[in-house]
Specification:
The complex is a heterodimer of chains A (91) and B (314). Chain A is of the alpha+beta class and 91 residues long. Chain A is 18% helix and 23% strand. Chain B is globular. The longest helix of chain B is centred in the middle third of the chain and has 17 residues, at 147-163. In chain B, α7 (205-208) links the parallel β8 (195-202) and β9. Classes of the chains: A alpha+beta (91), B alpha/beta (314).
Chain lengths: 91, 314
């Protein structure tokens, strides 16, 4: 079963307007590489030169921010759901 | 409880058990910050922000204060500014609830609307621009002011530990990060094994809008090192739990409370918290200011949640 990835409006310029992608990989890093193959430019929007996720991008696996799991090396399993959201404040 | 003035009535809110909603083997409690004088946790923050500035000699009767807010901080500041003669302006996203605007109007606050599509980030941006061009205005800036987490480190956290010394975990909403940082630090000093979880509101696409990812905003006061997890909760899940809180426990709370409760229910799992753990959910406010959003109205819950998703509810 593939991993479903929800893409925010601002990144859909890399996905031909698709809101949801499906990809594979055993970590978030591998998933991003897999998606980059079909959606050029996506990786650069998510990952910096240091190989880590950009500060203002939040990636969630099953609703949990990967920064508190294993970062970009967070393991993925088939059927996981991944979402990407811009960082937003409240208050 | 006798208070000499409104400021003295801030804090010391009830911590209420949730016997009907607690999963088997766990004890959930909710700290009802809606019991503060203006009805939200932000009374603590407003009090600390103003007292800090007063100690630094930055405020005098007639002083002008400007703050970006999604509502609660503005209302709390307004109530505390009024008797002191401070003139308050608030930059607020135009898609916040009408109750918030009416309350600010009552206190004669000058409301500067920021674009809905930019959410709170837009309010922050506009407030900074205005303050940069107007050196006489004082910007407390809850997102970057250490007095915000300190309010929670010195009051909310100690109250929780006083009432529940063996608390295993606290869940709070992520807005400025003030509650999580302040309560989290205090909790972990008391017990390094205690856990702190952030409930992050997930909105509809309108709220995230078309902003670029590199224009995002991470509040400087948020100390991510105290967090053990950050879990997003969409409007439907938040609303579902907010309603269960009313129907099963009788508690009328705001929508962020439901989001925090959803996270609390998720972490009550032996993989994360030992059985027998006591978990505190911080409820930032009651439900009053959300009535006009239709959040509590009869009708199809999914439709209500979908319309709510485009409002800034935290």
């Amino acid at each position: 079963m593939p991993i479903e990835v929800r893409v925010p409006t601002v990144l859909r310029k890399h996905t031909a307007g698709e809101k949801t992608l499906s990809g594979s990989g055993s970590t978030v890093r591998e998933l991003v590489e897999d998606l980059e193959g079909r959606n050029p430019g996506l990786r650069q929007s998510l990952v910096g030169d240091d190989g880590q996720l950009h500060r203002f991008v939040n990636v969630y696996v099953n609703d949990e921010d990967v920064r508190y799991l294993g970062g970009i090396e967070t393991p993925l399993s088939d059927g996981d759901s991944v979402s990407i959201l811009p960082a937003v404040a409240g208050g | 409880m006798l208070a000499r003035d409104l400021r003295a009535a801030v804090g010391d809110t009830p911590l209420v058990g949730l016997p009907a909603l607690s999963p088997p083997g766990y004890e959930l409690y909710v700290k009802l910050e809606g019991h503060n004088p203006t009805g939200s946790v932000k009374d603590r923050v407003a009090k600390y922000l103003l007292e800090d500035a007063e100690r630094a000699g930055l405020l005098h009767p007639g002083s002008r204060i400007l703050e970006p807010t999604s509502g609660n901080t503005g209302i709390a500041l307004a109530a505390l500014c009024a008797p002191r003669g401070y003139k308050l302006s608030c930059v607020m996203p135009e898609n916040t609830s009408v109750e918030r605007r009416r309350l600010l109007e009552l206190y004669s606050v000058d409301i500067i609307p920021s674009p809905a599509a930019e959410g709170s980030n837009g309010a922050v941006r506009m407030a900074r621009e205005i303050a940069d061009a107007d050196p006489d205005v004082y910007l407390p800036f809850q997102y970057g002011n250490a007095a915000n987490p300190r309010a929670h480190y010195e009051t909310t956290g100690p109250e929780i530990l006083r009432d529940l010394p063996d608390v295993a975990a606290v869940v709070a909403g992520l807005g400025t990060g003030g509650t999580l940082t302040g309560v989290g630090r205090r909790l972990k000093e008391h017990d390094p094994a205690a856990k702190v979880f952030a409930a992050e509101p997930e909105y509809g696409e309108l709220v995230y809008g078309l902003r670029n990812l590199d224009e995002g905003f991470v509040p400087p006061v948020l100390d991510t090192s105290v967090l053990d997890g950050r879990i997003k909760v969409d409007s439907l899940a938040a609303l579902t739990e907010t309603r269960r809180l009313a129907t099963e426990e009788g508690i009328f709370a705001g929508i962020s409370t439901g989001a925090a409760l959803a996270v609390a229910l998720r972490v009550c799992n032996p993989r994360r918290l030992a059985e027998g753990s006591k978990v505190v959910v911080v409820s930032p406010d009651g439900g009053w200011k959300y009535l006009s959003t239709g959040a509590y109205a009869a009708g199809n819950l999914e439709q209500i949640a979908a319309s709510l998703a485009e409002t800034v509810w935290a």
